[in-house]
Amino acid sequence: MQIDLGNGYSLQDWETAWRDGDQDRMIPLADDYEVWKNLSDSFSHPYTRAYAEAWAALHTGVTPVVDFGICDDAGPIGGIGFQTFTDEARHAAALGYWLGRPFWGRGIMSSAVKAMTAYGFETLGLVRIYARVYKGNDASARVLEKAGYKMEGMLRKATLKEGVPIDHYLYAMLREEWG
After folding, report:
1. Is the pTM of this model over 0.85?
2. DSSP letter, residue 28
3. What is the tally of structural domains in the chain?
4. How many CB atoms lie within 10 A of CB 149?
5. Angle 22-30/49-59 helices, nearest 10 degrees?
6. 20-55 residue pLDDT tens
7. 95 vs 101: CA distance, rounded Å
8. What is the pLDDT of residues 68-97, one digit of tens each?
9. Residues 116, 123: Cα–Cα separation, whole Å
10. Burial class (CB within 10 angstroms; exposed 0-12, middle 13-18, buried 19+) of 38
11. Which of 127, 131, 116 is nearest to 170 (CA)?
12. What is the CATH classification number for the domain harbouring 109?
């Protein structure tokens, strides 16, 4: 599955995105401390080939697709996906994303978040999509705001990162606010 973002970028399911040779380029992008410091600890650091291959294998053939590689013509340069639920929160999903540092500031992530939001509401039938942004990650907050997400509040010392409790903001969009 592929979703065109324009300007030579697309979202691709991991089976499509993870082609032989693409790993050599993506792994150093993902293994960047400046990328990892704003992500959940479930995103491996160091980011190894074994982790990357396990991630791609875990998400290959999954239906519906909820995790995509953000790709240019040479392969993945980042990732975006939903954490979905099967309980009383099954109408909602948590959005997470990352992009290799050489690609920051080009509008790629803004396009990816907009496309993923449309996919979540139109294809997956979600009612609510939300994202956490660590305090100080102003670029990520701007990406969400450009996509129409609203900040619902700050969760004080809600996240433990590198052994230090930090605040994070909660951004969300409801289906009726989208479009």
Report:
1. yes
2. H
3. 1
4. 23
5. 110
6. 667 788 899 999 999 999 999 989 899 998 988 888
7. 19
8. 999 999 899 999 999 998 888 899 999 999
9. 10
10. middle
11. 131
12. 3.40.630.30
